[in-house]
Amino acid sequence: MAATARTEMEKMSLEQLKAVKEQTDLEVNVLQDSLTNIRSANVRLENAAAALHDLSLRPQGKQMLVPLTASLYVPGKLDDAEKVLVDVGTGYFIEQKTMVEGKDYCERKIALLKSNYDQLLEVATKKKSIADEAGAVLQAKLKLLAPSQ
Asked: Is residue 141 a contact partner of residue 17, using CB atoms and an 8 Å limit?
């Protein structure tokens, strides 16, 4: 397949090759951004799962700081460590009946993100190779044209 793609690229004009290279580079950048977002979401879920584990070890009535924002914490008291709220994104929370359900939710999301990450990584790798191939063909064509000018 790679040989066929290279043959097709060799038949293209310089403008077409530049367009293919620019388009695939743009797609690779978008995919890289998506991969970064998935990694950061995965880290947040792993932190949430660890926090749920830590919370399950604390006794009822324990004094603690409750985060309202990333930099604002207020004092609070642990009322019920079994019922937890899980952030499902964009400001929405769901109440899990037990700590185990909360941990299970995080683990399922982590598995889903890993699957999505692996699929995107495969697509990004293919796009990157197409962009590199287009760049190599473009450079070869430019070298051929340089002596004649």
From this structure: yes
pLDDT of 117 reads: 96
pTM of the complete model beyond 0.85 = no
Give how far Cα 30 sits from Cα of 24, 48, 90, 125, 128, Å.
Answer: 10, 27, 21, 13, 12
Distance (Å, whole) CA 95 – CA 51: 16
Give percent above pLDDT 90 in the chain: 42
| Whole-number Å distance between alpha carbons of 61 and 57 | 12
How many residues appear in the chain? 149
* Separation of alpha carbons 109 and 96, rounded Å: 15
Instruction: Categorize the per-residue pLDDT at 148 as very low, low, confident or very high, splitting at 50, 70 and 90.
Output: low
